[in-house]
Amino acid sequence: MEIYIINAVLLTLTGFAVEKFSKSKRLLKLYCIYAFIQMTLLAAFRIDTGIDYSQYYHAFYGISKAPDWDAVFEFRYEAGYLIINRLISYFSNNIIVFMGIYHGIMYGLLMLYIYRFCEEKWLSVLSFIALDYFAMSFCFLRQGMAMVIGLFAIEYIRKRRWSLAGPLILLASSFHASALILFLYYLLSYINWRKRWLQVFAVVISLFIYVSCDIILQNVLVGPFEKYKGYLSSSFMEGNSIVLVFYPVFCVILFFILMKRIQGKSHTLDNLVPMLFFGMVLTILSTKHYIVERMALYITIYNIRLVSMMVYHFCKKKQLWNYHLATICTLIISVGAFVFGITFDRYLIVPYKVAQEQLENVPMLKIMGKSDTSND
To answer: What pTM value is reported for the model?
Structure first.
């Protein structure tokens, strides 16, 4: 587990030093490349770490040995994930190589997003790690890729560029069907949040949804989401403690409070507010059914930009006390959430402990490139 703490410390200190003491864009690019390489190597060599490791292990070998593409698409996973598995298997059938290439694509896109769109890049990297999205990507391989692609989609949703947002949402959903929720985010972006009656209506309807959560889920989980109905009665998906959703809710509320202060003529964020509100509602609903968080993740991960955006604007407007306060609060709450996850050994969110029950399901000889195929 120590290696993951070292990873967070190194990426934070290096990024902070580069961004605060150097004005070189070249060094900033090198930092993003360094972060991409370091996270990818950790993900590739994390043998047996993460609750879904054995599932994706067997899926990769099963897909690689499928006789043709028709047989590949018989697997229960989404098309995008199946295609990447199959293409990687043409180069190697080693699980470490697969994890390295797959996570490399994911983190490569993530660092590209952070470099292009995030103001305080070191803080965005820290948030990605400390808010457990890095660890979550170890378990949720398919949704991890969908979430990163979804970040780009949200940027084009904000700009109302449907020709780019639409294809990106469809691409994200080819890795995890839950990404289709981004189409609803797109529709919400057209709401004029400044109207008082809409604000009241949003609060009332969110309370109604919270009370009627069970009935609503039973009726909306249809089509590509039908398979998730079984999760509603699963102890594994019963829900989170309210403490675990405090941070994303805090970020959204703080953003609402500060929005007018960081908003200028050239930086309008109004169309983002209803999306953030809806994401907050879904996050609160996940305390009743954890499966709801699968929908909320596409907007809560936006905190990796949201927090750095606030800090950047405080600094830009020479409001040093606000800048320091926001930075300190962010670090305390982020690191606090990180330590909380480790302390309580929450393997889903912080899967930094070897899942012993998976050792029998993942033959180590095969991982090392041996010929044992008894468990394929």
So the answer is: 0.81
